[in-house]
Amino acid sequence: MVLRRRPLLAGLLACGLGPARAETRRFRIAFANLDETPGVTVEGLGFTGPDVRRSFELAARTLPVEMLYFDNAGDPARAIANAEAAIAQHVDLLIEYNADADANALIGRRLTESRTPAIGLVHPLSGAPLYGPDNRGAGRIAGRALGAFAQENWPNEQVLSVLIGDLADAGSAIAERIDGISSGVHETLPGLQFASLDTGGQSVRADALLTKFLQRQRGERILIATLDDLSAVYAKNAIEMNRRQSDCIIVSQGLDRNIHGGASEKKEIDPNNRGGVVLGSVAYYMDRYGYDVLPLALRMLHGEILPPRTFTRHTLVTGANVFREYPPFDMN
Amino acid sequence: MRVATVAARAALSVLPLLLSIAPGFAQTDCKQVIAPSPFGPDDQTGATNRITPAVTKAAAAEIQTGTATPMAFNLVDGVPLFGTRFTKTILTAVSTMPGAEFGKNKMSYMEDTYLSQSHVGTHIDGMGHIGVLDCYYNQTPMGKYVTQNYLKRLGLENIKTLATRGVIIDAVKVFQQANKLKTNSACRNPCLDAGTVISEADLQAGLKMYNVTLREGDAVFINTGWNDLFQQYPAQNAVYNGGEPGISKSAAQWLASQKVVAVGADTWAVEVVPHEDTTEAFPVHVILLPNNGIHIIENVRTDLIAAAAAQSGRATFFLNMTVPKAVGATGTFVNIEAIQ
After folding, report:
1. Fewer Cβ atoms within 10 Å of its own Cβ: the N or the C terminal residue of chain A?
2. Is the pLDDT of residue B21 over 50?
């Protein structure tokens, strides 16, 4: 009797009727986004909340997850309410993107109480692993690129350096990027001081500010670090209008669509832009966060303990690698 | 003179060395990056080798009522184009003016010049369209065969007949039945939204819906509903071009395993955009064209044949489509009809 039952069981398993063929479990993951208000950019870069959300939507397509989306709308109270809603809906995991430290402390406590696993995005969430940019490291990449460019192209020449961006931003991220840029440049050009041109968050001001600067500085080579890509675009315009293309080089932060564009759009970084003054931009990949964070979430949900902090990959994107990093997709 | 000759000889002797050490000029080992063709090492034709007389004869059995359903869009100013592509006709000879007519029978005539890129409107991608590095279909090291005007291998003139059976897969119905249709608000009729991945399971569900089993030599067309936006040109061109629903890489592999000769859709690239992996560029194109010799047909008008299939219960038809013998071309606009 036993001998007859074993082949039957084996047959059932082979036919896919047994537990070995169980469907992959689909997890319910909530993503509470920082701010999806149209036109509002995040983290001092050119990305928007919808860019970040879209990355989760795209990444989720081929993963065993069901996503729930919340918009914190830049409002701490709403972030708390959204976290409560996610907990009430018994999600398997919450990805919290909220900049307010006090609200994050409260949300962290509520998640711990409800035993809801979580990942903090960009900003620390108590009790949860953090995913986000390495601001200092990204800044250092830009600084090194500027220093290397000066060393290779302008050896033994008078070199100035300029920092352009929202310098008054009180957030630590901006300060870390500036610190990284400075330390990166100093690896090859020790002691080089940066002149600061503060756009006050209005990137368009980069044009006028740099124009005034260029008119005061004649004959020097100028390394320009911009803190966002739109500022880089306006700075480039100022350089071109003042015919200083041979004296200036820009490295930016972010690599958003303002600068890499698509195949149908104007691109500042393009293999065909030989001799362009925008050398490159350090990629933050905020429009690909979902592709990094959802696999981390699944690892957590399968019992793995994540390191306390996971950094986004940063790389300098220039004309040499822009099509590999951001393949244009209108070449059918 | 002698000095010049010596210098010229020296330059010629150095040139191969320069070419061999310049990283940009190294010829890729195409056997490492492209699959070999099942039709032999000299083949330039690709999957249309599968359309044998028997296949065409069997396809002819699909003609029962003789109804021809259009599957191509009018090629006209304003339709969605990509990047710097253009299409324009110019009348270059007009003899309708009094006195310009010929002969006592007063014959007049007109001619035009087509100034157009080939991959516009409803069009077919040939084997010379897509590669990996400098390697194209059948492990062809394409750098050797590119001239300023045309390709010396893999041109459209190598295509055999496309007189075969066509199959329409209505992905809109599949997604509706599975209760997973997420439409785009710009579509007037239900459509799959940009970025929607059509898997091999979805394709199989679409075939099962009409009790169709794919045969070797079939041409498969997928209705995503996205052509609704094409029909709203130019108002919705940006939405149409901004992304699209389409097949996944594994779905493309599955179609290749079925030995089809062409895959078409009512989208501009057939494959899902944004891609499953956004760091890749057109992976389905790479699977179908260079690695399997399967043509891609884009911007196909699929809504009418999908509607006809829903009405008649028949999702198969005789594919009426011919490709000009454009020597060395990578693609061309085409007209397509589904005859049932």
Report:
1. N
2. no
The reply to whether residue B298 touches residue A332, judged by beta carbons under 8 angstroms, is yes
Q: CB atoms < 10 A from the CB of B107, how many?
A: 9
Chain A residues near residue B83 by CB distance under 8 angstroms: 263-264, 330-331
Which secondary-structure segment (H or E) carries A55?
Answer: helix A49-60
ipTM for the whole predicted complex goes beyond 0.90 = no
Domains in chain A: ranges and CATH: 24-132+287-301 (3.40.50.2300), 135-283+318-325 (3.40.50.2300)
The domain made up of B30-81+120-339 is a member of CATH 3.50.30.50: yes
For residue A35, what are its two tokens? Answer: 């701010």
Which tokens in the block code for residue A97? 């993107």
Rounded Cα distance, B286 and B288, in Å: 6
B323 close contact with A: CB closer than 8 A: no
Where along chain B do its domains lie? 30-81+120-339, 86-116
The H-or-E segment that residue B230 falls in is helix B227-230
Dihedral sign, CA of B249, B253, B256, B260?
negative
User: What's the predicted TM-score (pTM) here?
Assistant: 0.86
B244 in contact with A, Cβ within 8 Å: no
Q: Which residues of A touch B196 (CB under 8 A)?
A: 61
**Any idea which residue has 């940063």 for tokens?**
A314
How far is it, in rounded angstroms, from Cα B27 to Cα B73?
40
pLDDT averages per 10-residue partition of chain A, 332 residues = 40 41 79 96 95 97 96 98 98 98 97 97 97 98 98 94 89 93 96 93 94 91 97 96 95 93 76 86 97 98 97 96 84 46
A62 CB-contact burial (10 Å; exposed 0-12 / middle 13-18 / buried 19+): middle
